Amino acid sequence: MSDHIKILKANGTWTVRAGGAVLAETKNALKLREGDRDEVIYIPRGDIAMAFLDKTDKITHCPHKGDATYYSVVTKSRTLQNVAWSYENPSDQVAEIKGHLAFYNMPEVTVEQI
User: Fold this and answer.
1) 33: exposed, middle or buried (C-beta count within 10 Å: 0-12, 13-18, 19+)?
2) Which CATH number is 63's domain given?
3) Dihedral through CA 46, CA 88, CA 60, CA 74, nearest 10?
4) Which stretches of the chain are assigned E, i.e. beta strand?
5) What is the pLDDT of residues 62-102, one digit of tens each?
6) Residue 22 sits in which domain range?
């Protein structure tokens, strides 16, 4: 694993909410720390209501993690574009995050420990 990336089990129960709906709840979240950036919570795909998410055409590349694919969240009132991402085939250094999604923590989407 790259020296500046650390992946740890995120203790406790984590939820993701958008548009008043609970999109995910898990006790199996991972916490990724990359350099001096804010830590990111990765939620197992099996603990996410994927019916609320639509895969988009957006792809970005990280030299340490690989290519990220993005998802929009469909709420009752609108679609929140590209608010979640996943490394479908992450580099070997961060293989633990395969099968997980991360969400931007923003006013319309909350990622929190309960």
Assistant:
1) middle
2) 2.170.150.40
3) -30
4) 5-9, 14-18, 21-26, 30-34, 40-44, 53-62, 66-74, 79-86, 100-103, 109-113
5) 999 999 999 999 888 889 999 999 999 999 999 999 999 99
6) 5-113
Amino acid residing at 73: V
Query: Strand 66-74 and strand 5-9: pairing?
Result: unpaired
The mean pLDDT value for 51-72 works out to: 96
Domain total in the chain: 1
pTM: 0.93
SS3 94: helix
**% pLDDT > 90, the chain:** 82
pLDDT at 1 over 50: no
